[in-house]
Amino acid sequence: MQKLTIRQAFKTTQDYFKISGKDLSEVSGIGTPHISSFRNGKNWISEDTLEKLLDGMEEIAPGSRRYFGLLVSGGSEPNLEDLIEIIGADRLMVAIAEKFKKDRETINCLQQSLIMS
């Protein structure tokens, strides 16, 4: 795997784990415009801000911080089995449950908006 810059690795990790800027902003406390500017190469961020963003990504998508590290170091990209081993079965089950809950909430909101219209 080719070694990526911090910015490239951040963007690739966020895209790979499908972490929205809005969700990351809410969890990390870093503004969406600040995240977007960093992703797009318009501004740099401090080490403290990067730590908050990586912590936020890890909270949203367990295993994302390690994936980011692999990209920066040029290590090999883990396959699904490696990711499962990295995050552990308990965290995987929690992540799956949270994903289903989020999907269910989205479906309920869509159903409510259809009923209202």
Describe the structure using short key phrases.
single chain, 117 residues, mainly alpha, 434 Repressor (Amino-terminal Domain), 2 domains, 7 helices
Description:
This is XRE family transcriptional regulator. This protein has 117 residues and is an all-alpha fold. It folds into two domains: 6-77, lambda repressor-like DNA-binding domains (434 Repressor (Amino-terminal Domain)), CATH 1.10.260.40; 89-117. Helix content is 74%, strand content 0%. The protein has helices at 6-16, 21-28, 32-39, 47-60, 64-73, 80-87, 89-116. Helix 1 runs antiparallel to helix 5 and helix 2 (21-28) packs across helix 4 (47-60). The model has no long low-confidence stretch (mean pLDDT 87).
